[in-house]
Amino acid sequence: MYQDVILDHYKHPHGRGLRDGDAEVHHVNPTCGDEITLRVKYDGSRIADVSYEGQGCSISQASASVLNELLVGKELDEARRIQDVFLELMQSKGKIEPDDAMEETLEDAVAFAGVSKYPARVKCALLSWMAWKDATAQALGEDRDNAVRKTA
Amino acid sequence: MYQDVILDHYKHPHGRGLRDGDAEVHHVNPTCGDEITLRVKYDGSRIADVSYEGQGCSISQASASVLNELLVGKELDEARRIQDVFLELMQSKGKIEPDDAMEETLEDAVAFAGVSKYPARVKCALLSWMAWKDATAQALGEDRDNAVRKTA
Amino acid sequence: MTVAHQGLTGLLDTEAIRKDFPILDREIHDGKKLVYLDNAATSQSPRQVLDVLTEYYEKHNANVHRGVHVLAEEATALYEGARDKVAEFINAPSRDEVIFTKNASESLNLVANMLGWADEPYRVDHETEIVITEMEHHSNIVPWQLLSQRTGAKLKWFGLTDDGRLDLSNLNEVITEKTKIVSFVLVSNILGTHNPVEAIVRRAQEVGALVCIDASQAAPHMPLDVQALQADFVAFTGHKMCGPTGIGVLWGRQELLEDLPPFLGGGEMIETVSMNSSTYAPAPHKFEAGTPPIAGAIGLGAAVDYLNSIGMEKIARHEHALTEYAVQRLLEVPDLKIIGPVTAEDRGAAISFTLGDIHPHDVGQVLDEQGIAVRVGHHCARPVCLRYGIPATTRASFYLYSTPAEVDALVDGLEHVRNFFG
Amino acid sequence: MTVAHQGLTGLLDTEAIRKDFPILDREIHDGKKLVYLDNAATSQSPRQVLDVLTEYYEKHNANVHRGVHVLAEEATALYEGARDKVAEFINAPSRDEVIFTKNASESLNLVANMLGWADEPYRVDHETEIVITEMEHHSNIVPWQLLSQRTGAKLKWFGLTDDGRLDLSNLNEVITEKTKIVSFVLVSNILGTHNPVEAIVRRAQEVGALVCIDASQAAPHMPLDVQALQADFVAFTGHKMCGPTGIGVLWGRQELLEDLPPFLGGGEMIETVSMNSSTYAPAPHKFEAGTPPIAGAIGLGAAVDYLNSIGMEKIARHEHALTEYAVQRLLEVPDLKIIGPVTAEDRGAAISFTLGDIHPHDVGQVLDEQGIAVRVGHHCARPVCLRYGIPATTRASFYLYSTPAEVDALVDGLEHVRNFFG
Ligand SMILES: Cc1ncc(COP(=O)(O)O)c(C=O)c1O
Ligand SMILES: Cc1ncc(COP(=O)(O)O)c(C=O)c1O
């Protein structure tokens, strides 16, 4: 499961650190104590930044790094599609052999295919993705609130 | 376990029926619903009568009949000795092969040796004996009370 | 020896099935073949289940959840796989509604305790009522008596008709607006009666009461569909359905399991613990404190596979044919009186009876001497004995491996009992 | 590969012992020999136990108590025989003080619930206090938190010293006249600490509080004498002592078991039942509702026989020697920090540690790839992790079949982990 790509992201994480954002969430994986604080910043429907800080195992840390690399700059719709594919891969119990299309979508994240064989670790890999989803919901909810407030 | 002696006592019980007594007890074997009402009558320290009424399996019924036959007319000390031997036999899990001395003490009651192999039935065999012990304690307790009252 | 059973239809190929059950080859009392008619007390386990148990301990044994090593992953997959199997077996809408307990008794106590500690609208307290029936197993009586004593709730029950059925004539007086929970047995272990669920559930729903069904004698013998039952909780036990001892099931509706408080506290059932307070894992784990009966659950999963491989419909048909035959043959025995429905309609394969005034203990013992294993006593349903004014019954109960020849052996055995004590 | 362990004394003949444990031959990850160092989570079962389980189901399986047929008598004799064995194993004054549960968690919940429903002088209510410690397993925390929430009793606890021992400096302030129950672990499953019983028991007796000891990590590893402990209750679990899953034990003092109310209601635990009220059987049956884990208890009896055949004193000596060696070897690993006593004195054979800032999940996973099974996480003792400011630990835990070579494999494995993430 420890593909070089994963170890690389673990040792040299992308976009780590907390920067300005529209929403912040804190997620914990209670079974192993992995923790992440994650902020999203939107520029309209474009993801301007995903910044994060956390502690945890290599899988959860590398996954956050991959997420940052993959999603920043993308349109929300596209990001959601990517997340769905990643989720599908992680829940495949090692039964999906990523094809070219999947590799194109997930880029470095295909390296997590091996992790999906380890149920105890799938949660680690998904921690940052769940945090991102949650933060996005908050940010967009707030945007809408803000929008309402502004137009009011 | 169903020795002829046991079946005989079951079909033709000795001394069945409730007669006058110094004390009466009612005992139940909750696991199978065997019941007995038993009275003892003492003539000083001599057992004048053990009368009883009850419902239950052949073992519990035959055992009451044997008890009546064996104990009525005996001195209390002797009766207690007999009960101890019977108890020992019943708790032997089929491991005691009654010898002549035991046979002399227990008479027909040695026929219950086979029952001791069946833990579920030992309680049936002991029901009337426990009732007798209890009734005797009551009767003698009362006697003593009576004695105290008389001398007071 | 009578051979009256030729031409019975709907029977299983018991010759093949019996080969799966090592214990059925056992001889007792110097060479007498075992005739095992005590299936309502506990069933036997096929080789297929025993092999799974042994393989678990020889290859995969580890504590479940949280492990990152191979054995822990395997044990967890097997344990949770058993949950999937059980969920499918009872047609549960979600696998997370299947809670593993140690037996049906724990399952029923779990329901009673959840309701005692629950918040409104579920809370059972001194202003509310609990409804059971007079034909319940002690395991579906005592937990409610305890709850009633501890909360002040009133315990009420449905009585029985003379022919061994629930008396529902006063349905609306027994289940009222005050009723919080109605708990009843689907198939009685002593009378064999298969109870009508719909009428009771409809009335319970009318007044907003929860419904708990004790399916201990149903799950082993017929297709069980918790959605069709429309109950809120369904309890049953592994050792009566070809599974190992020490494993039971409580199925509960997801929303309820989410809302209701935990019962036992400990490892596995928590989300996070500090000295001051804890939060709980989602169901089913919330209700599974401590290391679960891992091998037991996996064995139950194997038992479910085995039963499915035969087919629950077919098992039900087999037992129905056998019960019909047994009722008919038993009624031929002089002085024999069936306690419970004297028919095979709406009844399970447990038949209780008295034999003149020969005490059931004696009946059972003399049958045992002939190799025939039946149960005698009050079958943990003493109120039924009180209701019919008898101290005890003899009970013969059948399963998928039971044969008409065993019914014949029983009938012949009873003749012998009569002669012996006659 | 290092061979530093020559000359260790007090070790068992593990070559012979390991032949009894089929799973120890298992190879994982393409031919790597299993190095099983997760014994504090669950132990493995020897052939001798597995054979007894299979033989039970193939020859004697029946429901216990009340049966008059041969199988029922045999099953009952085996089940009650297991109780005799366990009673002797812990030097219980009476066999009737041994209650079979499904696991240690149920045993501890049983105590908490008995005290919650008890009459005076045992009753825990809002004017009383419960005392535990900061090193308890969640199974000895959550039941008391629940009891505290439900009764209003105050929950207090002993803290920990920096070197992983109980801080008893405030013994008299923590245990006071208001204390009704003190419940603590004999040997910690995360720190390995073996706690001093006498001081705590003496203070508890002084104020008239009951004492409950969680011996889950002691019973498997050393002679256990409930009389010498002078506790009122002692809980442990079968699956950690070579027994099957799904069986636990609660030992309790006879007078208490007589006085305290039942917990779960159902079959087997009653004396007589009517719809209006029930009376209960004497202990231990009063506390064993429903069909017990029959095979589990019998398997535990076989495990006790097995442990006795090796000798608990010898097992303790073996583990002590191994622990001493392991502590010494582990301290050679750079960046490794033991969480718990850094000595083999007054400690069990479970050793928790951190390895630099490599997350325990990664440590465990990379060890697993080498065939080495350890546990990672908070080990159901999260307050200990909070206390020492760490998210989790890696834990290696030994048993009678563990060898110095396995310690060496662990140390080599940890070197590999360091290089891998270095
Ligand atoms: C110290 C301690 N107490 C209690 C338990 C709970 O045991 P079980 O999970 O078998 O209930 C464990 C093991 O998990 C333990 O190590
Ligand atoms: C109808 C019914 N309910 C509940 C039970 C209790 O099951 P268990 O003893 O496995 O808890 C039984 C069996 O004994 C039963 O027949």
From TrEMBL, chains C, D:
<dbReference type="InterPro" id="IPR000192">
    <property type="entry name" value="Aminotrans_V_dom"/>
</dbReference>
<dbReference type="Pfam" id="PF00266">
    <property type="entry name" value="Aminotran_5"/>
</dbReference>
<dbReference type="GO" id="GO:0030170">
    <property type="term" value="F:pyridoxal phosphate binding"/>
</dbReference>
<dbReference type="GO" id="GO:0031071">
    <property type="term" value="F:cysteine desulfurase activity"/>
</dbReference>
<dbReference type="InterPro" id="IPR015421">
    <property type="entry name" value="PyrdxlP-dep_Trfase_major"/>
</dbReference>
<keyword id="KW-0808">Transferase</keyword>
<keyword id="KW-0663">Pyridoxal phosphate</keyword>
<dbReference type="InterPro" id="IPR015422">
    <property type="entry name" value="PyrdxlP-dep_Trfase_small"/>
</dbReference>
<protein>
    <recommendedName>
        <fullName>cysteine desulfurase</fullName>
        <ecNumber>2.8.1.7</ecNumber>
    </recommendedName>
</protein>
<comment type="similarity">
    <text>Belongs to the class-V pyridoxal-phosphate-dependent aminotransferase family. Csd subfamily.</text>
</comment>
<dbReference type="InterPro" id="IPR015424">
    <property type="entry name" value="PyrdxlP-dep_Trfase"/>
</dbReference>
<dbReference type="InterPro" id="IPR010970">
    <property type="entry name" value="Cys_dSase_SufS"/>
</dbReference>
<dbReference type="GO" id="GO:0006534">
    <property type="term" value="P:cysteine metabolic process"/>
</dbReference>
<feature type="domain" description="Aminotransferase class V">
    <location>
        <begin position="35"/>
        <end position="410"/>
    </location>
</feature>
